[in-house]
């Protein structure tokens, strides 16, 4: 089974948690895209859901495939969000944001009664941090904000490059018009503390640590999909 087939397996398993009539948060990324494609087939067959997309990219795919959408302001309380992740630890803490959608993803997931993460085996880790941690920041005061992050990281015993994410035509801009700092901290022994400290930095709009948000993870490997619940 190749990587795409594993993503499809996880997406298929997640679809069985979606009930007719649900208000559904719809994630961003290659795994979430597979979920959208499967969901669109069900919608074409008469299944009724109302989706809230977590990015402009996901909104475009949903519109193209006929998945009905609402804004989060129209549907501020959701039944379920299905989304991918970059890393998942045994407590179901996540790193998200490789696709730059972390802010809307976190807002939508937190507006949902449940969040189910879908991923392939490569995303499961014992300790978060091998993956760069995306931190969404306001462009104003970028250098000061980065210094503040470096200082708090040092207090927590973390170090590593913190670089502005680039696109082909200049700094990468999120859907909200912010920049992203990618922090290569390496292993993060206390993700909860790092999350709290980052939340307290003026200029940090949001970060990619999702703590106590996911309820379940569906992990696909070569032999099929398995469910992970928080330990
Ligand atoms: O901003 C992007 C998101 O957090 C994605 O859900 C995450 O990067 C996983 O994406 P993929 O399914 O493509 O690995």
Written account of the structure:
It catalyses: aldehydo-D-ribose 5-phosphate = D-ribulose 5-phosphate. Belongs to the ribose 5-phosphate isomerase family. By secondary structure, the chain is α/β, with parallel strands linked by helices. It has two domains: 3-125 and 211-223, Rossmann fold (3-Layer(aba) Sandwich), CATH 3.40.50.1360; 133-203, 2-Layer Sandwich (Alpha-Beta Plaits). 30% of the residues lie in helices and 26% in strands. Helix 2 (30-44) links the parallel strand 1 (23-26) and strand 2. It binds ribose-5-phosphate. The site of ribose-5-phosphate (R5P) has 18 residues, from helix 2 and helix 4. The site of ribose-5-phosphate has 18 residues, from helix 2 and helix 4.
Structural descriptors:
single chain; Rossmann fold; Alpha-Beta Plaits; 15 strands; 231 residues; 2 domains; Ribose5P_isomerase_typA_subgr; six-stranded mixed β-sheet; ribose-5-phosphate isomerase activity; four-stranded antiparallel β-sheet; binds ribose-5-phosphate; EC 5.3.1.6; 30% helix; isomerase; Ribose5P_isomerase_type_A; alpha/beta; globular
């Amino acid at each position: 089974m190749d990587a795409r087939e594993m993503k499809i397996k996880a997406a298929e398993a997640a679809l069985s948690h979606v009930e007719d009539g649900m208000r559904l948060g719809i994630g961003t990324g290659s795994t979430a895209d597979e979920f959208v494609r499967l969901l669109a087939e069900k919608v074409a067959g008469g299944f009724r859901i109302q989706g809230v997309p977590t990015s402009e990219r996901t909104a475009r795919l949903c519109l193209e495939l006929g998945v009905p959408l609402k804004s989060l302001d129209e549907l501020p309380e959701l039944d379920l969000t299905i989304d991918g992740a970059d890393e998942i630890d045994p407590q179901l803490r996540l790193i998200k944001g490789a696709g730059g959608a972390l802010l809307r993803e976190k807002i939508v997931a937190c507006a949902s009664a449940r969040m189910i993460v879908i991923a392939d085996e490569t995303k499961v880790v014992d300790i978060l941090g091998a993956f760069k941690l995306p931190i969404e920041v306001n462009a104003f005061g970028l250098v000061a904000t980065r210094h503040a992050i470096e200082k708090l990281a040092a207090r927590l015993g973390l170090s590593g490059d913190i670089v502005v994410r680039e696109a082909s035509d200049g700094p990468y801009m999120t859907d909200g018009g912010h920049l992203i700092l990618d922090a290569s901290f390496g292993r993060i022994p206390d993700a909860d503390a790092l999350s709290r400290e980052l939340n307290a930095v003026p200029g940090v709009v949001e970060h990619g640590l999702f703590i106590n948000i996911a309820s379940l993870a569906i992990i696909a490997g070569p032999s099929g999909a398995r469910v992970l619940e928080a330990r």
